[in-house]
Specification:
globular; 5-stranded mixed β-sheet
Length: 280
Amino acid sequence: MKKYLAIGSLVLASVSCTETEVEYIEKEVEMATAGETTLVLDARYGDADFELNKAMDYKFVDGGEEVDLKYEFSYLRYWVSNVILVNEDGEEFLVPDSHYLVEETNEIPIQEGSYNKVYPAKKREEIELSGIPVGNYSGVKFSIGVAPEYNDNLSLQSGELNPLNGMSKSSWHWHTSYIFTSISGEMEVFIDEPESKSFIWEVGSNDYYIQKEVQFESPITISSKTNSTINLEYDVEKSLEIDAPWENSFIGASTPELMEKLTNNHIAAISLVSAEFELK
């Protein structure tokens, strides 16, 4: 039986429950302990699914003229950290050691290939959050990037942080630190004739560690007796919205204003699809 519940108030989403079903739900609530939920960050490109190694259309304005451009992505990678679940009373639960690498990537040489090691091709859009106190939760907060404490000292470990995953480089900054977001591939522009070149857009530095807050349409119950999912969408096309993308094929530590623009884009590109739960 899969009926929705709300712990404490026992507000039932279905008024068609029989008395026996209500008693069953009440019993399940009483027996519930800390639970888990799944945070999904589904990468999209406008109305389509985000895909690697496939030309995707983009338009921008240059000198008052609309220009056609195509992106072909080789990877999309970013850190999600300090995940916080917010309950109906506004109380916050910080998920311990919550640093997660969300990515869709081809193979990547580690440290520009200096160690003769390759980071394998991966696709990861789901984050499992566990040990969450029983309760009704109305929202989630998380940051894009790596918390300053860990970004300033790569010897410290938290969650999935690891210098060997290709998201840190000795050449990235004036000192070794993590890359918060990274997207790379080939771009092709059509002005007088087709022309193509590589692009890589990366964001790092504690100045661009920023939090995203998402409010659910209605609360979800998280407990050992429920299954729940927080479905978010990440629109990569929105994250690319900068002036003169063709001229700015490299964005990194030397282009702080563009890093700030990308940071704001990443946050704006994430939106809620649904937050759901059901009794196990």
